[in-house]
């Protein structure tokens, strides 16, 4: 069985103990085909799914030095799907025994008037982008292979421009805190994707 | 560009070295090819290293070159005056560089050491190196210019004239005391487009007029030793074009003053190679070319004369030289024969080799090796390597099955083969070992029995019914083996799923699961049994084979449907996993994420969760099949039992698994066109039969066959009365009364009697028909009073006109009437009673 949906728990700070384990990598456009082919072989047997999402990142600046960041995401190709609001904590690299990046995460499905609600609360939009790609699943592991598009005119998702000539590959698992065992599975899976793509735990702080 | 460069400043030589003598050397570093047509920015040099390369560390170097753009950041002219590094002394750089002033475009001369502290130069340099000792030097004095050649060229030609082929180098310094000099400076930027001609180079360079005094650092060699040597190598005696080109290529290189890698170090007293005494290195080349030109001209002249055919003609030379005996034709024939024979031999050899390889291939095919078999196995089955074993997966797990059986088989190498004996034809080097519980063959058997068998022989019935086809002596092929095992696994999964549901589902009559049989009662007195028949190859099971059962009780449709259902079930487990959208959301059911005003209420969620199990579905299908077959049997028996009226059933060919329909027509033979009153549509469902009447009435019947029979009987009796009505219309009779359900007379056990009364066109006669499903038909005819003789005269009806009133009814003895059927008889009766219109 899957973990109970997060919405069932009280949404107060710090009590939600779900963690996202993450590995990242990227492939160039021309090798996307072979990666998809490999993933179709490795992942759960189901029709390959594509997705087209629009993500907006909202900031709330308070007295604290660092602003509070929330990510609102909506599916552009599935009508009627709920919006998704996500809070991501500070990523922890951890030691060598843990093979994946870990960060706190809170996932909530919401109705489509989410942006208005956030604006009313005092959030303001920092940036937005469109993600388009493929989605795979193996057990509890989720593999996203997608390209990020820059939105040329704010709010208009029709005119977009690819950010790079490569695809981002993310292998993620959402699990309760302390279950570092899942990172072993992730590492094994990442090993099987070599040398098509090297999935590593990438510290976002180092890239800044 | 010549090998000498002018510089125009007085360097204080004395502070560097006492002189320019002692182990003198000339070093040619880099070359013009690194500058033109495009710059090669990899070519940078260190003068200290050069000093070591020419085996004179600590040398005093002066000369000319290109400035170190790698340090300066721009291109410049370079005048190296350097005391290089040695064990005793640190290096001293007294070099100068000249470049174009970016501010005003003028010429700017700067001391290198004022800005930088390295000892580098770039691209090209003509260097004169010595120990810097004082010693004897040659002093040359020139008063004025007398010709087009410059000072250094003059000196070089003088040396060349004197020494001839022996290359002699010279280096040093001279001072221009008076007058002006035109000199160039390279611009700061390298040319981005290739400079292919002198003209372009001159355009690129900046030229300046410089005034005396100027100190110059010339370094030159009287003659390039390489050039002379290469010129000698040009061979005119051979006609091969490629060689000529090659020679031309090397010659071209030589002209470009190479020496990039070979920083030639020569003492000016020594000649390395001995040369033929000749004034000019190109002498031999020129002579050869000239003689070739002469010959070409002569040939051209001869050819042009011959072409005119005025003075000269060409005749073939007569072949008298051949010996007279040999006929040229026979000679030709012989040579042809020979060459043909040679060709044939080659062809034959090739054919032999081909046939050999073909037979070898065929042999290889017969001898199937393990690896190729494994490759073929991999094309169809999932394999993985665990330790030193190769394990395969024959389960349906990847297709969505949740059956816990691991379904693993092992691939083994078949080595138990006697090498001495002949290899059997079906020998396969690869064998598979399947789990023992998946061996043999299995199938699911579904049957419906009317009578519940004794509870005692449950369990053992229906098993091992089919004797196995005798297996061939050797082991079967792995493919068939694996397919059989997979089938066993699927059957087991179906049965496991069914028995689990049988235990879980609460039904009015509980399902019984005994051993490998599931018994359920869809209808009273009806038993559906689903059993798993698994026969393994061992003898014990074959002994117990019994042949009691007749093969008809197999419900192959249901067995097939069971397989379909389990596949559907598999598919469901696959598709129930939904991918989240947007992609960052966690996994889960999409609908569960709906919240707020669009959220589902409890009923909707309940309806989502309720799903029918495999057993429920198959029981429903069984019920439907049973109901359908029973309805068909009922209709058939009625049709065969009752000839009048006729009953016709039209079954639809394409049915749903839970519903099928039949159209029932009740007609009278010969009167199909006028009697169309009864058309019924029977929709046979799972539990009941819905009858749709032609006029839209819907009647629901239960699964009991008696209900359907009674209904059809009553419809048939009604049909007769309807037929009379239709007939009356055709015959011109008048309907006096009509009733489908007559409330009078004896009560029928099924349905109601129907009645009709029709009057003849003249009104004299009337016919009354009463027809009941059980009591049958009763036909009465009413006559006019005047035809009734036995009628007592009434006192009231005196007048004659009353005699036209209809009198009493008389029953017709129907079974004595002639006629095929009821409607025909009725037509006869009506026509008999109607007055003849003629």
TrEMBL record, chain A:
Main location: nucleus
Keywords annotated in UniProt: Activator, Nucleus, Transcription, Transcription regulation
GO cellular component: core mediator complex; mediator complex
Superkingdom to which the source organism belongs: Eukaryota
Any GO BP annotation: termination of RNA polymerase II transcription
InterPro entries the UniProt entry points to: Mediator_Med18
Keyword Transcription carried by entry: yes
Compartment list: Nucleus
GO MF, one example: transcription coregulator activity
Any single Pfam family the record assigns to this protein: Med18
General function of this protein: Component of the Mediator complex, a coactivator involved in the regulated transcription of nearly all RNA polymerase II-dependent genes. Mediator functions as a bridge to convey information from gene-specific regulatory proteins to the basal RNA polymerase II transcription machinery. Mediator is recruited to promoters by direct interactions with regulatory proteins and serves as a scaffold for the assembly of a functional preinitiation complex with RNA polymerase II and the general transcription factors.
Subunit structure: Component of the Mediator complex, which is composed of MED1, MED4, MED6, MED7, MED8, MED9, MED10, MED11, MED12, MED13, MED13L, MED14, MED15, MED16, MED17, MED18, MED19, MED20, MED21, MED22, MED23, MED24, MED25, MED26, MED27, MED29, MED30, MED31, CCNC, CDK8 and CDC2L6/CDK11. The MED12, MED13, CCNC and CDK8 subunits form a distinct module termed the CDK8 module. Mediator containing the CDK8 module is less active than Mediator lacking this module in supporting transcriptional activation.
Family of this protein: Belongs to the Mediator complex subunit 18 family.
Protein's recorded name: Mediator of RNA polymerase II transcription subunit 18
Organism taxonomic ancestry: Eukaryota, Metazoa, Chordata, Craniata, Vertebrata
Underlying gene: MED18
From TrEMBL, chain B:
CC terms in the record's Gene Ontology section: core mediator complex; mediator complex
Region (Disordered): 238-270
Superkingdom, taxonomy of origin: Eukaryota
Alphabetized SUPFAM superfamilies for the sequence: AF0104/ALDC/Ptd012-like
Domain DUF1907: residue ranges: 12-234
Tagged with keyword Protein biosynthesis: no
A GO BP annotation: somatic stem cell population maintenance
InterPro entries: C11orf54_DUF1907, Mediator_Med17
Keywords, sorted A to Z: Nucleus, Transcription, Transcription regulation
Keyword Ribosomal protein (UniProt): no
Molecular-function annotations in GO: nuclear thyroid hormone receptor binding; transcription coactivator activity
Subcellular location: Nucleus
Family from the record: Belongs to the Mediator complex subunit 17 family.
Function, as annotated: Component of the Mediator complex, a coactivator involved in the regulated transcription of nearly all RNA polymerase II-dependent genes. Mediator functions as a bridge to convey information from gene-specific regulatory proteins to the basal RNA polymerase II transcription machinery. Mediator is recruited to promoters by direct interactions with regulatory proteins and serves as a scaffold for the assembly of a functional preinitiation complex with RNA polymerase II and the general transcription factors.
Record protein name field: Cofactor required for Sp1 transcriptional activation subunit 6
Organism annotation: Macaca mulatta
Gene: MED17
């Amino acid at each position: 069985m899957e973990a109970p949906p997060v919405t069932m728990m009280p949404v107060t700070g710090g009590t939600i103990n779900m963690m996202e384990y993450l590995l990242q990598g990227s492939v160039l456009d021309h090798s996307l085909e072979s990666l998809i082919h490999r993933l179709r072989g490795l992942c759960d047997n189901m029709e390959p799914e594509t997705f087209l999402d629009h993500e907006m990142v909202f900031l709330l600046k308070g007295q604290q030095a660092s602003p509070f960041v929330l990510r609102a995401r909506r599916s552009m190709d599935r009508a009627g799907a709920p919006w998704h609001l996500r809070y991501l904590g500070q990523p922890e690299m951890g030691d060598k025994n843990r093979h994946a990046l870990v960060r706190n995460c809170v996932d909530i499905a919401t109705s489509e008037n989410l942006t208005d609600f956030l604006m009313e609360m005092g959030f303001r939009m920092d940036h937005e982008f469109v993600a388009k790609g493929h989605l795979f699943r193996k057990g509890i592991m989720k593999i996203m292979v997608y390209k990020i598009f820059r939105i040329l005119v704010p709010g208009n998702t029709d005119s977009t421009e690819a950010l790079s000539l490569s695809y981002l590959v993310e292998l993620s698992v959402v699990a309760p805190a302390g279950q570092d065992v899942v990172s072993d599975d992730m590492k094994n899976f990442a090993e099987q994707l070599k040398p098509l793509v090297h999935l590593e735990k990438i510290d976002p702080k180092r890239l800044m | 560009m010549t090998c000498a460069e002018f510089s125009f400043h007085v360097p204080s030589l004395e502070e560097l070295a006492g002189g320019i003598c002692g182990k003198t050397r000339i070093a040619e570093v880099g070359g013009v090819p690194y500058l033109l047509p495009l710059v090669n920015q990899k070519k940078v040099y260190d003068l200290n290293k050069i000093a070591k390369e020419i085996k004179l560390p600590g040398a005093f170097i002066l000369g000319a070159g290109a400035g170190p753009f790698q340090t300066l950041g721009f291109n410049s002219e370079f005048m190296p005056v350097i005391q290089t590094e040695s064990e005793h002394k640190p290096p001293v750089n007294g070099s100068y560089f000249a470049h174009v002033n970016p501010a005003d475009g003028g010429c700017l001369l700067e001391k290198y050491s004022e800005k930088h502290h390295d000892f580098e130069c770039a691209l090209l340099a003509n260097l004169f190196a010595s120990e810097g000792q004082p010693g004897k030097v040659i002093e040359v004095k020139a008063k004025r210019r007398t010709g087009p050649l410059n000072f250094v060229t003059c000196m070089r030609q003088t040396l060349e004239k004197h020494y001839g082929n022996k290359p002699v180098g010279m280096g040093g310094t001279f001072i221009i005391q008076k007058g002006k000099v035109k000199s160039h400076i390279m611009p700061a930027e390298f040319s981005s487009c290739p400079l292919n001609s002198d003209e372009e180079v001159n355009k690129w360079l900046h030229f300046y007029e410089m005034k005396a005094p100027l100190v110059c650092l010339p370094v030159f060699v009287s003659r390039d030793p390489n050039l002379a040597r290469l010129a000698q190598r040009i061979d005119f005696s051979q006609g091969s074009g490629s060689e000529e080109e090659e020679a031309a290529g090397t010659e071209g290189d030589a002209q470009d003053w190479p020496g990039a890698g070979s920083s030639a170090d020569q003492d000016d007293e020594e000649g390395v190679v001995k040369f033929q005494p000749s004034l000019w290195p190109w002498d031999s080349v020129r002579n050869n070319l000239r003689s070739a030109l002469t010959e070409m001209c002569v040939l051209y002249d001869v050819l042009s004369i011959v072409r005119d055919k005025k003075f000269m003609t060409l005749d073939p030379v007569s072949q008298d030289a051949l010996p007279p005996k040999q006929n040229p034709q026979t000679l030709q024939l012989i040579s042809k024969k020979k060459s043909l024979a040679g060709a044939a031999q080659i062809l034959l050899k090739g054919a032999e080799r081909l046939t050999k390889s073909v037979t070898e291939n065929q042999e290889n095919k017969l001898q199937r090796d393990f690896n190729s078999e494994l490759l073929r196995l991999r094309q169809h089955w999932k394999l993985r390597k665990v330790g030193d074993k190769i394990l395969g997966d024959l389960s349906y797990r990847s297709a969505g099955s949740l059956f816990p059986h691991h379904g693993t088989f092992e691939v083994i190498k078949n080595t138990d083969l006697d090498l001495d004996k002949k290899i059997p034809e079906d020998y396969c080097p690869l064998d598979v070992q399947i789990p023992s519980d998946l061996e043999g063959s299995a199938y699911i058997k579904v049957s419906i029995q009317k009578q519940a068998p004794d509870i005692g022989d449950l369990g053992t019935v229906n098993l091992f019914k089919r004797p196995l086809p005798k297996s061939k002596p050797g082991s079967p092929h792995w493919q068939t083996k694996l397919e059989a095992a997979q089938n066993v696994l699927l059957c087991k999964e179906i049965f496991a799923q069914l028995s689990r549901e049988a235990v879980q589902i609460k039904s009015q009559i509980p399902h019984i699961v005994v051993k490998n049989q599931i018994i359920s009662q869809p209808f009273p007195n009806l038993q559906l049994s689903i059993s798993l028949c698994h026969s393994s190859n061992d003898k014990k099971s074959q002994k117990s084979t019994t042949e009691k059962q007749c093969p008809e009780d197999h419900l192959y449709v249901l067995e097939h449907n069971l397989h379909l259902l389990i596949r559907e079930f598999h598919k469901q487990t696959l598709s129930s996993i939904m991918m989240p959208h947007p992609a960052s959301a966690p996994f889960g059911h999409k609908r569960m994420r709906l919240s707020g005003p669009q959220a589902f209420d409890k009923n909707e969620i309940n309806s989502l969760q309720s799903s029918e199990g495999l057993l429920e579905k198959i029981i429903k299908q069984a019920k439907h099949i049973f109901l359908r077959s029973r309805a068909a049997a009922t209709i058939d028996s009625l049709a065969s039992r009752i000839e009048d009226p006729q009953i016709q059933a039209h079954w639809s060919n394409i049915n749903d698994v839970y519903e099928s329909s039949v159209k029932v027509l009740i007609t009278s033979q010969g009167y199909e066109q006028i009697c169309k009153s009864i058309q019924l549509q029977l929709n046979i469902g799972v539990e009941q039969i819905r009858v749709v009447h032609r006029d839209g009435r819907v009647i629901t019947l239960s699964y009991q066959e008696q209900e359907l029979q009674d209904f059809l009987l009553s419809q048939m009796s009604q049909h007769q009365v309807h037929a009379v009505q239709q007939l009356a219309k055709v015959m011109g009779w008048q309907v006096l009364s009509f009733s489908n359900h007559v409330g009078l007379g004896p009560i029928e056990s099924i349905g109601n009697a129907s009645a009709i009364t029709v009057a003849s066109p003249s009104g004299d006669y009337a016919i009354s028909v009463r027809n009941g499903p059980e009591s049958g038909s009763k036909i009465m005819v009413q006559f006019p009073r005047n035809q009734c003789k036995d009628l007592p005269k009434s006192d009231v009806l005196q007048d004659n006109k009353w005699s036209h009133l209809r009198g009493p009814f008389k029953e017709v003895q129907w079974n004595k009437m002639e006629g095929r059927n009821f409607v025909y008889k009725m037509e006869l009766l009506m026509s008999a009673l109607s007055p003849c219109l003629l």
